[in-house]
Structure formats: C-alpha cells, structure tokens
Design brief:
With 89 residues, the chain is mainly alpha-helical. Helix content is 69%, strand content 0%. Helix 2 runs antiparallel to helix 3.
C-alpha cells in the first residue's frame, strides 16, 4: 500500500514540473484588419462593376445602335455580366 502512495507522489511531482513551465501571458491583443479592408474594397469594386454593367445594359435597351454592331457587346452577352457582377458584389 505504501508503494502505491509513493508511486502516486512521484507521478504528481512529474506533472507539477510540466505545469510550472507555462507559456508567457499575452499582454496585448490586436486584430489584423487588413483582410477585412481587402474584402470591403473588393465589395465596392464589384458593386461599381455591376452598376456600370447595368447602366450599359439599360442604355442598350434604349439605343441598340450604341455598340456599333459589335456582337460581343450585345444585350444578350452583357446581361449575364451585370447579373453575375451584382450577385458577387
């Protein structure tokens, strides 16, 4: 019975040594706002792209000759650009 008590006290001494070696206390904490600013900037850029694409598409409904007959600037090709830009903004 005494050997069990002795073994237990040796184990507790070993664990006490490891608990005394704690990491240093963090004295100050600050947030890294850089990534938040980048996401906010991306949101503003995509909102401007979506608004500009919507304005161009709306003008194409009023003045179809605005694109000078270029097929890649037709209403049907620019409407998905406006929709996707507005969704991702």
């Amino acid at each position: 019975m005494d050997t069990q008590v002795a073994n237990h006290s040796e184990q507790s001494d070993a664990t006490d040594d490891t608990t005394n070696q704690r990491s240093p206390v963090l004295e100050s904490f600050s947030y890294d706002d850089g990534i938040v600013r980048l996401f906010a900037t991306a949101t503003i850029v995509w909102a401007l792209v979506g608004t500009l694409a919507g304005l161009i598409v709306a003008l194409l409904l009023v003045m179809p000759s605005l694109t000078a007959g270029l097929p890649w600037l037709s209403f049907g090709r620019l409407r998905p650009l406006h929709t996707n830009a507005a969704i991702f903004a």
